[in-house]
Amino acid sequence: MACVAGAVAVGLALTSCSSGTSDKKREYAVPSSMCGTAMPPSALEPLLPAGKTISSRSSGSPGYARCQVSVDGKVVLSSIIERWSPRTTLTKVAFGTYGITAHSVNKEGERYIVADSAAVGHVECAAKRKDGAEVFAVIRTHHGSVDTAAMEKAISEFTDAAATSKECTELNT
């Protein structure tokens, strides 16, 4: 009987401890883009933490577009769409990306390399660039790791959407 009572007490203690973290919820609407690059909210939602407000800021230069998403004033997610020299490989870009190492890769394919807090995708531009540049997309969380399947869905959607970005469509800039 003492064991059962002890188990119930431990269970209640764990429940009361965990209820404090379950009170945190997302009070903002999940956006449908990363600084203008269309993304289904269902692809972004698993990458975003709980909080009250969300905002984004874009920056960049020709051939480089960066987006930083903040929740409650703290950067939690960033993306990059970037042109690289002809014949640059996905592996080169991925292993040059902060947060991706040979040991952190969870999934590697022809178009994506996915780790638990970052992913890189090779963008297939609708029209081949005249300058031969390769275009890559990167998504990185800044608040910890996420499920590999969620990161893969996000980079897949983002890479597909980046095919219409100015990094793909501006020829010879």
In short:
The chain is an alpha+beta fold and 173 residues long. The protein contains five helices and nine strands.
Question: What does this molecule look like?
Answer:
This protein is of the alpha+beta class and 173 residues long. The protein is 29% helix and 31% strand. It has 5 helices and 9 strands; from the N terminus they run αββαβββαββββαα. The strands form 2 sheets. The protein has a 7-stranded antiparallel sheet. The radius of gyration is 20 Å and the shape is globular. The model is unreliable at 1-21 (pLDDT under 50).
**Radius of gyration, taken over Cα atoms and rounded to an integer in Å:** 20 Å
The DSSP helix count reads 5
Can you tell me the overall shape?
globular
Relative helix content: 25-40%
Strand content: 25-35%
Output the structural class: alpha+beta
Total beta strands: 9
Low-pLDDT regions: 1-21
Biggest sheet record: 7 strands, antiparallel
Distance between the termini: 77 Å
Strands of the largest sheet, in order across it? 3-4-5-9-8-7-6
Task: Give short descriptive properties of this protein.
globular, disordered N terminus, 9 strands, 173 residues, 5 helices, alpha+beta, 29% helix
Task: List strands and helices in order, with pairings.
Layout: H1 2-22, E1 33-34, E2 37-38, H2 41-44, E3 54-61, E4 64-71, E5 74-84, H3 90-95, E6 105-108, E7 112-115, E8 118-123, E9 134-141, H4 148-162, H5 166-169
Antiparallel strand pairs: 1-2, 3-4, 4-5, 5-9, 6-7, 7-8, 8-9
